Amino acid sequence: MLELLREVGVELPGRAGLLKFGMTPGEILELLPADRVTHHRQCMGLSLDQYAELRHAHDAWLGGLLFEPDWSFGVEFDGVVLGFGGGGPGATDRLARVEIQARARADGEGGQGGPESTPVAWDDIDLFGYPAAEIVAVLPGLAAPSDGPPPADMAVDELGLRLSRARPTVEHWERVTLFGPGSGGWGACCAGGLVCAEQGDGLVGIMY
After folding, report:
1. Going by C-beta distance under 8 Å and a sequence separation of 6 or more, which residues neighbour residue 92?
2. Residue 208: pLDDT band by 50, 70, 90 thresholds?
3. Which is nearest to 57 in space by CA: 24, 87, 20?
4. Are 112 and 102 spatial neighbours (Cβ–Cβ below 8 Å)?
5. Which of 138, 152, 166, 200 has its CA 20 to 30 A from that of 173?
6. What dihedral angle (degrees, nearest 10) is formed by the CA atoms of 81, 91, 30, 72?
7. Nearest C-alpha neighbor of 135 from the set 192, 124, 109, 64
8. Which residues, listed in sequence order, are joined to residue 99 by a DSSP beta bridge?
9. Under 8 Å CB-to-CB from 162, ≥6 apart: which residues?
10. Closest Cα to residue 6, out of 189, 134, 156, 192?
């Protein structure tokens, strides 16, 4: 089980260790099993200094679209894939975001990672294992609409969580992002975790 710990990090399965916010890429790679790590190449993305406006970079960072060369690696644990990101301006070399995807979504196949997937838990609640509406009902700070399924993207600011799936009709959450204290450096561009999605455009310069 992957245990998400607010303002601390992520407890890896099988007592493999604790990914702590504030770690450097090198410290994280030393902790991860080398045979499960994949290094990625940049694809249709920009680095931070290529964004004309900070709010655009912030939105891209929230969505995992900002290319950060030092963090271009991920690790898989039995059906879930972890990606990593640094903090805001002046703290890009310190872990501030952990993104967790069901393997089927990460591979572009759709659906869930299957019955053998590692549980991803917040306070013993498996965020991938229960229907999205049931998760919304028990996490603080979330309110599901009464006339339909929850939106495809929701933020739980007080927990530092962002939950998303491809579309509202998908039954389970497919991606969970945990933000640490180091992510506050991005707050200078706007107030609120998702405000930039309305005011900015994280895809500026990424798609040609």
Report:
1. 48, 68, 70, 86
2. very low
3. 87
4. yes
5. 200
6. 40
7. 124
8. 83, 177
9. 62, 153, 154, 155, 156, 176, 177, 179, 193, 194
10. 156
